[in-house]
Automatic annotation (TrEMBL):
This is 4Fe-4S ferredoxin-type domain-containing protein. The lineage of its organism: Bacteria, Katanobacteria.
Amino acid sequence: MNKKILKVSFPEKCIGCELCVLAAQRQVGKASFEGSPIRIMGGKKGYDIHLDPSVNDLDVNKISEICPKGCFSVEEGGQEEGLEFKAEEDV
């Protein structure tokens, strides 16, 4: 069975609600934003989504499904690298 990998497919759709951050933290039993494997950073033209590779140790389907704008996708296997995604306007 391949490990499921959380990917940021549509970073430009992010509205900064941080529901994904809370979903990740809920899975590790924390009620704060500190130390989350997902970070949402406000930029000049939107939000940047930073993923730590440790996010893939969690139930990534739950994290993906909670996003109201559909920013994430879940893939089977693949590279487990911490990646930074920026809205197209910021690139």
